[in-house]
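Form 7-S
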Amino acid sequence: MRWRKARRNGNRAAMKVTPTRLSDVLLIEPDVYGDARGWFMESWQAERYQTQGIQADFTQANLSYSEYGVLRGLHYQYPEPQGKLVMVVSGTVFDVAVDIRRGSATFGQWAGLELSGENHRQLWIPEGFAHGFQVLSAHAVFAYFCTRKYCADYDAVVACNDPDIGVQWTLPPAGLSAKDAAAPRLSAIDADRLPEL
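Output:
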């Protein structure tokens, strides 16, 4: 693997931040410092991320392990929505965010990107979006920082195969939980159960 040397601005590492097709969902490419021994990167540094418009106070961090083909999502939490900074520790996933904010010009639209332990990419998904991912490698360890703690009473899901959203998953949906398999289409969810812009 080739390592790139991080750029420096004073004593602060640089990073590349690019809006996705959903402008509030951001692709983050942190600088990675590596040599023959391995590599190092900052997965979160509040001041540096804030300069890129990511205002987040994380209250919970999660890790999940999934096998090849497993699809998790599309999950959201309401009325206490979670913003999420997501990344892959090992393996490869196709990661998806869906705008479910009432009144948004991009309501019901999605953005998807490949995240892996090799490319070190992160995705910032603000509050008001549903999120899901599918494992493309033999297995994957997925990490996410959340702006609110998980609350089972507010846990909600949108069907991963909702034809009105039309997510183009890399593989046929597999390994769905019972909750995900029974998830409703976005159009079937009462408006007062969705976040507002």
